[in-house]
Amino acid sequence: MTNPILPVAQAARAAAARLARADRPSKDAALGAAAASLRARREEILAANAADLAAAPDLSGAFRDRLTLNAARVEAMAQGLEEIAALPDPAGRVLAEWTRPNGLVIRRVAQPLGVIGMIYESRPNVTADAAGLCLKAGSAVLLRGGSEGARSAAAIHVCIADGLRAAGLPEAAVQMAPTQDRAFVGAMLGAAGLIDLIIPRGGKGLVTRVMQEARVPVLAHAEGLNHTYVHAAADHAMARAVLVNAKMRRTGVCGATETLLIDAAIAPALLPLLVQDLRALGCDFRADARARAILPELAPATEDDFATEWLDAMLSIAVVDGVEEALAHIRRHGSEHTEAIITGDAAVAQAFLDGLASAVGLWNASTQFCDGGEFGFGAEIGIATGRMHARGPVGLEQLCTYRYQVLGAGQTRP
Amino acid sequence: MTNPILPVAQAARAAAARLARADRPSKDAALGAAAASLRARREEILAANAADLAAAPDLSGAFRDRLTLNAARVEAMAQGLEEIAALPDPAGRVLAEWTRPNGLVIRRVAQPLGVIGMIYESRPNVTADAAGLCLKAGSAVLLRGGSEGARSAAAIHVCIADGLRAAGLPEAAVQMAPTQDRAFVGAMLGAAGLIDLIIPRGGKGLVTRVMQEARVPVLAHAEGLNHTYVHAAADHAMARAVLVNAKMRRTGVCGATETLLIDAAIAPALLPLLVQDLRALGCDFRADARARAILPELAPATEDDFATEWLDAMLSIAVVDGVEEALAHIRRHGSEHTEAIITGDAAVAQAFLDGLASAVGLWNASTQFCDGGEFGFGAEIGIATGRMHARGPVGLEQLCTYRYQVLGAGQTRP
């Protein structure tokens, strides 16, 4: 049997080679024309989306909401593409340059990754966002969305293709998987040498499958088991404001705080206030014995609770004795995503930040700032929790690799 | 059955956490003490090496030479460790820093990778080099060398452990595989979450196995099918000197040129001189029809020849019509390692460099400059030919990842 990925990936590689050499005006023109096409074809897109929704009457409310498009959401996709067009071109930037004693000038230059495989679930906007980011980063992308949103994704893809055509760029730079067959996902994951990078975006089940099966490098978001550590020298008002935001601004995002660590010295005075603030917003708690000695009404936490990413209005609480114990708790239970310390002591803050292995450490700020937009990346394709290539928010710069350009005058190596 | 990697990897992870926070003086002290121990234990090491050689009387000459140690080679290992100690600390460098409109200061900071698994063959010096580089980069390393050199590697490892102990660093920061059982290699390759990165170093068989089986990210050197393209505007003398160096300085290194591409406009005058120079040094040729029209005595090249990494005194030759045809040939047959153009035309040179996807592109210089030492990295653990994380020579900087440190004043996310 022929590998079903082969014709698709070969077209993608040829398109990637052209796209890697495309100048910024053509890429931006494609993005602008795709945005215009999204607006022009709005009714087609909404009709496709209605058909998707009609074909899946048993979807849960949250899932249905993610799948649903309306005029405002189509406009948001169009604006998203225009915002990506306004961002600087990440490819071709000179990242470093130095001269060797023999006169060779060595430049490290940002370069498009090549062919990216995007595997996602039902959100139709991922089709537009991922296509736009990969295009601007100079890489071809193969999109494989969930079957529930296939009609919507196809309608959006038509607009992207319109944009590429209008700018004279190869349509194969953005392709949809030609089949919803699950075996095709397997073929994508096994396509080492054809696809350069797989980015999964969706629930834990999807991401885990991709990470376990892929033979292609993966940039993935595994888990955000994030801690906010309130140090003894924390300003009480700041700790209260930041923790409420870190836990309750949105409980389902990957940057939400899941565990509060609080110094024993400050806990008797401050913990009741923190709990009161959060409880008023509907938050529940799982607390260790030391926290329950202060607030006996809190439910007891098990070891498992400290290893649970709640993604909900629930907070694990542990009382610790100083920064080293906080770091040890984080090393034991955390997922190396995002941690924050609240303290007025700069030396303690630096010790905490330096002691972390996590992708993002914050001093006196909410863990919910872990986001490409908040970092100033303009747009992000996701958050990476691995250690290789890129960590934290993945924007256009992180979607690039690099190469060296070495300028000589006839040098030979001794 | 328990995973045999578990106790080793857990000790390595604990050591990595300590090493990541070790300051430069302790790491350099460990390297210096290990170098002193290599000198002090020279006779032990040479005796272990003699036992390795005696146990493998049937080794081929080249393999035997790679395995053999003598006083000078032990001294070279000791000096190698001292040179690594003299290099700047790659961890903790601030790679970028910016301030957001809300006042958050965001710093991207270099961070040790964690636990590195090194899988290599018979060269005993890899034990010292890899241990030294990983230690300086703040990562723990698990070394699994070939069975033929096991006694030599163990004797060298004793010296590294001496160094770690002398500096008060955990000995588990540098561990040898506890068994030569091949299943242990499989366990290393499958140790996702325990080992952060696998670096294979050895022949194509080893590297291919590692790349196919690993569930852990791999930084590997696959193949160096490198091209030197002599453009119509090349200086003849420069082209001759650079090509001789690129092909014949050392034919077995990964930066050696394997294929000459030469413009049709210059080939009748220059190709006979290039061939004459190389032939005088013992080089043989496989040429396409257009080259054979100029030099009919050259052996004809097949398609396969252009896809062959000779690693020997053999050169494939193709005549092309300009830079685009050269780039197309490289895209079709190359391995994205290292390519050079020889030309006096700066615009053509830039078009060539920009059109490459290869890790290293050179203008008017020998492809044999693809080397960490020549790039100024001080030392390299290998060359990477993939697209993720690091490309080209892998030195201390490339052995690091990064994280973000975000400094706030109580900011919450709207």
Helix content of chain A: 40-55%
* Coarse structural class of chain A: alpha/beta
The CATH topology of the largest domain in chain A is given as Aldehyde Dehydrogenase, Chain A, domain 1
Overall outline of chain A: globular
Figure out the total of helices of chain A: 15
The side-by-side strand order for the widest beta sheet of chain A comes to: 10-9-11-8-7-12-13
- Number of individual domains of chain A: 2
Enzyme class (chains A, B): oxidoreductase
Pathway (chains A, B): Amino-acid biosynthesis; L-proline biosynthesis; L-glutamate 5-semialdehyde from L-glutamate: step 2/2
Family (chains A, B): Belongs to the gamma-glutamyl phosphate reductase family.
GO biological process, one term (chains A, B): L-proline biosynthetic process
Task: Describe the model.
With 414 residues, chain A is α/β, with parallel strands linked by helices. The first copy, chain A, has two domains: 5-220 and 394-406, 3-Layer(aba) Sandwich (Aldehyde Dehydrogenase, Chain A, domain 1), CATH 3.40.605; 226-369, Aldehyde Dehydrogenase, Chain A, domain 2 (3-Layer(aba) Sandwich). Chain A is built from 15 helices and 16 strands. The first copy, chain A, has helices at 5-20, 24-40, 42-55, 61-67, 71-86, 125-136, 150-166, 182-189, 204-213, 236-248, 267-280, 289-294, 303-306, 323-333, 346-355, and strands at 94-99, 105-112, 115-120, 140-144, 174-176, 197-201, 226-230, 257-263, 284-287, 299-300, 314-320, 338-342, 360-365, 382-384, 392-394, 400-411. In chain A, strands 10-9-11-8-7-12-13 form a seven-stranded parallel beta sheet, with helices on both faces. Chain A has a four-stranded parallel beta sheet with strand order 5-4-3-6, sandwiched between helices. Chain A has a three-stranded antiparallel beta sheet with strand order 1-2-16, with no helix packed on it. In chain A, a hairpin with a 5-residue loop joins strand 1 (94-99) and strand 2 (105-112). The longest helix of chain A is centred in the N-terminal third of the chain and has 17 residues, at 24-40. Chain A is globular, with a radius of gyration of 24 Å. The N and C termini of chain A lie far apart (51 Å). The mean pLDDT of chain A is 95.
